[in-house]
Amino acid sequence: MIQLLFVVLFAEAILAFLMLVKIGPLRELVIKSLDQIKMGKGPATVKTIAGTMSVILFSSLMSILKIQNKGAKLGTMSPMDQVLWRTHLLEASLMGFTLFLGFLINRMHHYIQKLIKLRSSVDASKKEVERLEKEKELLREKEEKALKEMKLLQDEISKLTENMKKLTLELEVKDKKVETADAHVAALQKQAEVLLLEYDRLLEDNQNIQAQALGHR
To answer: What sign does the dihedral 133-134-137-139 (CA atoms) show?
Structure first.
């Protein structure tokens, strides 16, 4: 029994050490093994073993107390009682340490699992932050590009506006020239009409004079 407890205690100490100190892939193997143990009927089996060891521990403690009480009544303990007392004390100590280490390993496994989940969550958050940073950078680049395009469009609009103003001024000048030409044409038409009237009058006078001259002959 004592040899078995030593073996169990040594195995638990190795497990605890491997969980505390990362040596290659050993920590992951230990954690995966504990995960397998906690699946299915594993927890019930572990609880049963722990309960049995607790009962044996309680029994050893009671035996120690009985031997101490017996020695107290007799004033001394016989060599056999001393051997039994030391044996029960060693068994109780080993079982106590075994249960304590088992509890520590269980808690360590629990918190390591939480730590792994937190690290996974942090890694996922970091990736999400990196993705958002990249999207932000892309949006900033697009915004800068859009601002540049807007500036170019504004420059084009300014140029077109200036050209429209120039064309408007040229059109106004041409309209004025056309109005002046129209007025000049109208004046020439009136002058031509006056000349035509004068020509008709002169022609009529000439015909009258010729008619009179023929009458006198």
So the answer is: negative
Percent of the chain at pLDDT above 70? Answer: 97
DSSP code of 41? T
Burial readout 118-129 (b: 16 or more C-beta within 10 A, e: otherwise): eeeeeeeeeeee
Any idea which residue has 């890694």 for tokens? 123
Q: Which two tokens stand for residue 59?
A: 């029994």
DSSP state of 52: H
Q: Tell which wins on pLDDT, 161 or 107.
A: 161
In the chain, what is the greatest distance between 2 CA atoms, to the nearest angstrom? 203
* Residues whose CB is less than 8 angstroms from the CB of residue 99 and which lie 6 or more positions away in sequence, other chains included: 50, 53, 54, 57
Q: Which of 38-52, 157-171, 203-217 has the highest mean pLDDT?
A: 157-171
- Structure token digits, residue 155: 């420059």
Vertex 85, ends 51 and 93: CA angle to 5°?
40
State whether residue 128 is helix, strand or coil.
helix
